[in-house]
Structure prediction request, 99 residues.
Amino acid sequence: FSRKAIGFLFLFMDHENAGFRRIARETGLELKNTRNGFHELVGILKQHNYPDFRLKAAQLLGKFNLEDARPALEEAAVADRDSNVKQAATDALAAMKKQ
Prediction:
């Protein structure tokens, strides 16, 4: 069920209301501190059909700066079927190296 909640969160990240977008971004970053958040984002990055959700998952995983995210991001950077997701995963990996 947590994957569905993250899907709603991703939709709010693009909401017309700036306050909702801010809250969604802050909430997304807090997923790092939850029991399932990290694992759900990895699952979304690997399996979700909607490229925008995979892109957002890659961006958040990069911001988490967790070494456990590196294999999923590396796979997405090379093998994802969407070029925007590949780029997001590549950018996330580059940001992890700088931190």
Notes: The CA atoms of residues 65 and 88 lie 14 Å apart.
